Amino acid sequence: MAKKADKTRARLPRGFVDRHASDIRAVEEMNARIREVYERYGFDPIETPIFEYTDALGKFLPDQDRPNEGVFSLQDDDEQWLSLRYDLTAPLARHVAENFNDIQLPYRTYRAGYVFRNEKPGPGRFRQFMQFDADTVGAPGVAADAEMCMMMADVMEALGIARGDYVIRVNNRKVLDGVMEAIGVSDDGQKLTVLRAIDKLDKFGPEGVKLLLGPGRWDGGKEGEGDFTKGAGLDDANAQIVLDYIDGKAGGLENPTFQSGASELAQIESLCRAAGYDESRISIDPSVVRGLEYYTGPVFEAELTAEIPNEKGDIVRFGSVGGGGRYDGLVSRFRGQPVPATGFSIGVSRLMTALKNLGKLGQDPVLPPVLVTVMDGDTEAMAKYQQFTQKLRAAGIRAEMYQGNWKKFGNQLKYADRRGSPVAIIQGADERANGEIQIKDLLEGKRLSAEIESNEEWREARVAQLTVSEDELVDAVRKMLAAQAGEAA
Q1: How many angstroms from the chain centroid is the CA of residue 113?
Q2: How would DSSP label each residue in 135-176?
Q3: What sign for the dihedral angle of Cα 106, 110, 113, 116?
Q4: Cα dist. 204→216, 217, 283 in Å?
C-alpha cells in the first residue's frame, strides 16, 4: 500500500489573524477619513520599514540583553540585531535623526502601518495590529500638544462619532512626577506600581486604587479571594496625597515639577477652549497614565464613552482607542541635543471594530461583480466573452468571466449565487450569430432552481431575462443595476 503523502498542517500563528474583505475595506474607508483630517492640518505622509536595528527602538524595551523579550528579533548576517517595529514613533525618531539636516522643522508627518508585539496573546490582544500616527517634531511649545488634542477630536467626528460619545482626556507626566516627588517615591519599580494603580481608577474606583497604592488588592474583594496584586507599599498619608491628586485636590503641591506640568495643562486647556473645544470634547483628567517610558510632558487619550455592542453583541464601553503625548527625549538620544516632539497614535483595528458595531463603517457594501458566463469553449466564443468582460470593466462596472469548468452550466449559476452576482451575461451560438446577448437579473430570478444543468433548460426558463444587441451591453447592464439599487433602497 502506497504511503500517504506527508501534509503540512495549515495553522495560523498564535496572536495573528487573517483579514477578510469586509474588514480590509472598512479599515481603508476609516483610514481615508483619518488621512483627510491629518492632511487638512498640514501633515504629510511618510513610511518607514517594519524592521529597525534593535538598539534604535529605545529604552522602553523590556530587556536589551534579551532582545526577543517584547519584540520579534533576529540577527542579520553582520550579527547586528534587527527587530520588527514595536510602534511607529521610535522609527520616526530614527528617521528624523538620520535626516536631520534635510528636514524642515517643525516636521509634521503621519503614517499608518502594522506594529508587532512579542507578548502573550489573549482575547482582543494580538501580536500584529495597525496604528495610524501623526507627529510634530521640532515644536517645543504646548500649542503643538493642544493641536494634537483638537485634531484627535476632529478625527473622532470625521469618523461619525457624535459629540458626547467620545472625549480626549489630557494629563501631564510632569504633574505625575511631581506627585512622586511629594510622596518620596524615586524607585522606578515603585513609580510604575503607583502609576498602574492610578490607571485602575475607572475599573476599581477610589477604594480599589487605595488598596493598590498600599498593601495590595485581592480580586475577589476579600483576603484570600481570587488573585492578589501586590501594592506600591505607600503609607496612608502618602496614599491620600495620590487620591487627592486624582480627585483634583492637589493644588497644595508646590514642587517645581508639579507646578510646571500644571501650568502646561492650563495652557492646553486655554488654547482648546479658545478654539471652541469645550470640556465635553477635550478634558483635563489627572487619572490619564500612558504606558511608554519615553513620554516627558503632556499625555492624551481618545476614549469612546458611548456604550457599544462588541463582537458578541454584548453592550460594553470600548474605552481608549488611541493615545499619545510629548516625547522630547526620543530624537535627542540619537542627536545628543534637545529635539522636542509630540504625537498621537490611533489603534486602527480596535477603533474599526467599534465603528462597525456602531454602524459607522461598512454600510455601503461593495457590489459583487457581474458574471459573464461561458456557454461555448471554442476560441471565437471565448474571445467574445472576454471582450464583453473588458467592456464592462472599462465602463467602471465590476465584472468577471467565469473561469471554472464551463461545461456544467449549473455550476456557473451556483457560483454566481455564492458570489452574490447581481447580473449574468449569457451568449450561446445562436445569440452570437445574431450579434445578441442575454442579460439575466439574478436577484429577481433567484427563485430559479440551482439544479439547472443544461443550456436547453436555462433557455426555456428565461425568468427576469432580456435580449439586447452586443452594442447595448453596457447601457442595459447599467439600467438593470440601477433598477436593483432602487428596489434595495
Answers
A1: 9
A2: EEES--STHHHHHHHHHHHHHHHHTTPPTTSEEEEEEEHHHH
A3: positive
A4: 12, 10, 21
b/e per residue, 406-441, with b = 16+ CB within 10 A? beebeebbebbeeeebbbbbbbbeebbeeeebbbbb
Distance CA 233, CA 235 (A): 7
Q: Where are the alpha helices (DSSP H) in 275-338?
A: 332-335
In 10 A of CB 163, how many CB atoms? 12
The residue type found at 255 is N
Tens digits of per-residue pLDDT, 378-426? 999 999 999 999 999 999 999 999 999 999 888 998 999 999 999 999 9
Q: How many angstroms separate the Cα of 42 from the Cα of each of 107, 109, 110, 427, 435?
A: 10, 8, 10, 54, 56
Q: How far is CA 477 from CA 61, 392, 393, 465, in A?
A: 58, 9, 12, 11
Distance CA 432, CA 469 (A): 10
C-alpha angle 314-311-422 in degrees, rounded to nearest 5: 125
Q: What is the pLDDT of residue 458?
A: 54
If one counts every other C-beta atom within 10 angstroms of the C-beta of residue 478, the result is 14
